Amino acid sequence: MTRGKAVEVFNVSKRFGDYQALDHVDFTIHENEFFTLLGPSGCGKTTLLRMIAGFETPSEGGIVLFGQEIDQLPAHKRRVNTVFQSYALFPHMTLAQNIAFGLENLGWDKPRREARVAEMLELVHMTPFASRRPDQLSGGQRQRIALARALAPEPKVLLLDEPLSALDLKLRQAMRDELRELQRKTGITFIFVTHDQEEALDMSDRICVLGQGRVQQIGTPAEIYEEPENRFVADFIGETNFLDAEVISIDGARARIRTPLGLEFDAAQKGLTSPGPATLSLRPEKIGLQEQATGNVLTGTIRSRNYMGGYTHFVVETGGASLRVSRRNAVSQAESYAVGQEVQLGFRDESVRVLAQ
Amino acid sequence: MSNPHNVRHYPGAGLVTWVFFLWLYAPIAVVIWFSFNENRLVSVWTGFSMKWYAAALTNRALMDALRVSLTVAVVATSVATLVALSAAMVLSRNETMRFRRLSETVVNLPLLLPEIVVAVASLILFSQMGFSNGMARLIVAHSAFCTPFAFLPIRARMQGMSRDYEEAAKDLYASPFTAFRRVTLPLILPGVFAGAMLAFVISMDDFITSNLLATGGTTTLPVYIFGLIKQGTTPELNAISTLLILASLIIATFALVLSARSMRRA
Amino acid sequence: MRSARVWGLMPAWVLMLGTLMVPLLIVAAVSVAERGSYGGFAWDFNPLSYREILFSEDWDGNLVFDPKYLSIIGRTLLLAGATTLICMALALPVAYVIATRPPKTKALLIYLVTLPFWVSMIVRVYAWLIILGNEGFVGRFWHWIGGEGTLLFTPGAMLVGMVYSYIPLMVLPVFAAIEKLDPALLEAGADLYGSRWTTARRVILPLTWPGLAAGAVLVFVPALGTVLEPMLLGGGKQMMMGTLIQTQFGGARNWPFGAAVALVLMAMVVIVLVINARRSMSREVRV
User: Fold this and answer.
1) CA distance C59 to chain B (A)
2) CATH 2.40.50.140 domain locations along chain A
3) Which sequence ranges are marked TM in the entry (chain B) (predicted)?
4) Which of B172, B182, B265 sits opposite A81 (nearest CB)?
5) Angstrom distance (rounded) from CA C15 to CA C247
6) Are residues B245 and C119, on separate chains, in Cβ contact within 8 Å?
């Protein structure tokens, strides 16, 4: 399926004084996509969002919205809407007035406006609250109204700036489903900014991991988690073991690896061109213990055990390296490995990623 | 209060505070009290009477002075509030702009300089320019020294207001002017009112500048009161002062409550 | 964007340039001009006015040192300084008590401190004229305890009026500084065996110092230029710089001399402001 391009970010850089907030960022967001900008605080994700909204201008590069260059377009002429982190609901207006605000500015006539406001209130299940003011609402309700207000003018792209961060844990979970649902229903392209990897993996069609102002990797949630391309991504998303190794030979997307432990195997790689030292990433849950040890099998000693409820985390020492191993507590015998016990551990070739340096 | 274990309690401080507030309000109370004195001598109480208020309200010269003061205060307040509003808009939305601190100092300059020096300076300038319309002179000078009093509450209000509201307005297709009219202005309005009222009180109460710049027909209320004091104290003077005190206190209270409330909501 | 900024600030700059900055330059120019024959001044360079502050001509036209004006400057500094110190001494306990009240009481008391500030200066000074006068209750009390003469028209009367006029400007910044104090600091002071007074001296006072310094500037600067207190409570005989300037533009009609005194007053104010700016800047660096 080929989809149209919603937002194209061309080689965008942004400097604030000496600080490089964004460094040659370049990617394309498709129509009808739930696209997430994920990264630690200060990675430039909010700056990028504000550029698309029109609140910041790139120092270099440009942004194209549905084929139209928007660099010269002020914020109030861009057909994108934002759900602010603080929601920024106008405190002196009722909810209905808040939702109607954008429609008025677009010159919609009154009957059409009223119909749209009613429709939006219905969409976010807030119809009985139409004439309330924002300070009479709970956090989750404000969030819904902010969404309704931003969706009402039928924007081409909806920008969401960490909209769930002000909510408590339970509500956040429920709002994730609602957001995803809304995106499917409206078919509008969502650009979602968050620092919460779980949120990103759960909701997104594609994720762009930003770090130190640069795009670290773009891909589906599974690609980002299972096939991290560099150390930053592997480290930022989930937990992993980093292993030093030697690349002996490269054959396209496969590389022949030799580890200090003496194992030799093929692993997936991307971007490496010549043999030499490399870093491997191996997720803790991809290492099997004892009867689950398959593929490349080693012997090690359990150094620590942390019982986490659904999982138990072990640190296993093998040949001078410490590996973190996570084991689902499917049956209670998972408890039975004791600290100091010698165990077999194993992993399959395809679980290992060779990281670009 | 007198718990010896409370380390925050200092014996004597409470008493000092009580005496302090007594001292702060006693003079005002004395002025008001003797305005109801029937006797011609201010400080010799002989009985209650409202006759000095009647005398004050039928005093033509006083009414003329009041009219001058009100005219000057209304015009100067409007000018000062507009100047302050426009400066506050720029200064609180451009934290990193050049000359920001300098501009802020310039707006507040009247607070930093002794009023007598500024008054003298204006007098020399106006007479050099041949600018001799007393009312206009007062309005120009009052506009200047009222500006910081209008500026400070507006500025505080703008700083307390999140920029998100303005960005949200623009995000929802409001032109800069619409965003100002429908979002920014309604949200800072309490600050604007508070600033305008404080400017008004400051203009109404001014003596030093008005005394130097006033010409024959433009005696303001405080200048008129000064003239009366020079002639000797009478209960009528107290009645006039009482009216001025009440007006000032009511307007200032209104302004301070408005300002405090708007800060809490922001 | 840029032009919006320029237009937004323009009115303020024009107003302040036109009514303050340019006029002050003209004051500087007039202070070195000739005195006009019928009052006013003539545009001839002549720094006589500054000489007049220190010297006068005797009958033979010789210059003799004359402390007449110097004593006025001295009295101004002394009274303004005393006002500042008294305000500090009063403001500390008062601001402390206010700052330790519950929030509602606190807001009410601060409002009560500010309120008299909005009453016309002339009315406030007039009130003291009544109270201190021979018929006023303080005046009568004075005679009852055997005091002689009148309380009015003395430096003491002026001082009372000045402290009364400017005290809110001291209480507010001191209150702000004390309110920021963490109450746990006082408990820590007591916990470490400090008596109340040791804690006051070694914990509260140093941490309140910025507020006191800010208040000192706010009180001292207007006190230097005060006009009404010397005119009414000082009876015009106890001149201060403000009244001296005022007289030169009123009855005495010596504009260049008045301008020179005004400039000396300005210089004193600027020195205070510069010291204050340097103090607050060095603090910023340390914090």
Assistant:
1) 32
2) 239-355
3) 12-36, 68-91, 111-129, 135-154, 183-202, 239-260
4) B172
5) 27
6) yes
Task: Tell me whether residue C115 is in a domain.
Answer: yes
Average pLDDT over residues B18-22: 93
CATH superfamily placement of domain A5-231? P-loop containing nucleotide triphosphate hydrolases (3.40.50.300)
- Put simply, whether A92 touches B (Cβ < 8 Å) is yes
**Cβ separation of A81 and B182 shorter than 8 Å?**
no
- Number of domains making up chain C: 1
Residue of chain B whose alpha carbon sits nearest to that of A99: B172
Region of A67 (left: φ > 0; alpha: ψ -120 to 50; beta: rest) is: left
Which position has the higher pLDDT, B227 or C150? B227
Q: In the prediction, which pLDDT does B7 show?
A: 63
> Helix, strand or coil for residue A160?
strand
Mean pLDDT for A200-211 is 94
Partners of residue A311 on adjacent β-strands: A328
- CB atoms closer than 10 angstroms to residue A138: 10
Interface pTM, i.e. ipTM: 0.87
Q: Cite the beta strand spans of C203-277 per DSSP E.
A: none
- Whole-angstrom distance, CA of residue C111 vs CA of residue C168: 10
> Which range is least confidently modeled, A210-224, B109-123, C120-134, C136-150?
C136-150
For B201, the closest chain C residue by CA position comes to C118
**What confidence tens digit (pLDDT) does each residue in C170-202 have?**
999 999 988 888 777 777 776 777 777 777 777
Average pLDDT, chain C: 85
With CB atoms and an 8 Å threshold, state whether B16 touches C90. yes
Output the pLDDT for position C255.
87
B173/A74 CB distance under 8 A: no
Task: Give the pLDDT confidence of A318-329 residue by residue, as tens digits.
Answer: 877 889 999 888
Query: Which residues on B lie below 8 Å from A53 (Cβ)?
Result: 167, 171
Q: Domain residues for B121?
A: 60-265
- Whether residues C122 and B116 touch (CB distance < 8 A) is answered with no
* Cα within 13 Å of Cα(A211), Cβ side: 13
Task: Give me the CATH topology for the region A239-355.
Answer: OB fold (Dihydrolipoamide Acetyltransferase, E2P) (2.40.50)
Residues 143-182 of A with CB under 8 A from B: 149-150, 153
Chains C and B touch (3+ CB pairs under 8 A): yes
Residue B9 lies in a domain: no
Is A7:A30 a contact under the CB 8 Å cutoff? no
Within 8 A by CB and 6+ apart from C138, the residues are C131, C132, C151
Q: At residue B256, does pLDDT exceed 70?
A: yes
- pLDDT tens profile A212-254: 999 999 999 999 998 888 889 999 998 899 988 888 888 877 8
Count of Cβ atoms closer than 10 Å to residue A275 Cβ: 14
Residue C148 has what DSSP assignment?
-
Q: Which of B16, B33, B120, B229 to mutate to test the interface with C (most CBs of C within 10 A)?
A: B120
pLDDT of B249 higher than 80: yes
Beta bridge partners of A246: A258, A277
Higher pLDDT, A131 or C252: A131
Q: Shortest Cα distance from B157 to chain C (angstroms)?
A: 17
* Residue percentage of chain C with pLDDT more than 70: 94
Query: Residue B162: which of A88, A149, A153 has the nearest Cβ?
Result: A88
Residues in chain C closer than 8 A to B140 (CB atoms): 18-19
Interface contact C142, partner B, CB < 8 A:
no
| pLDDT score of B2 | 45
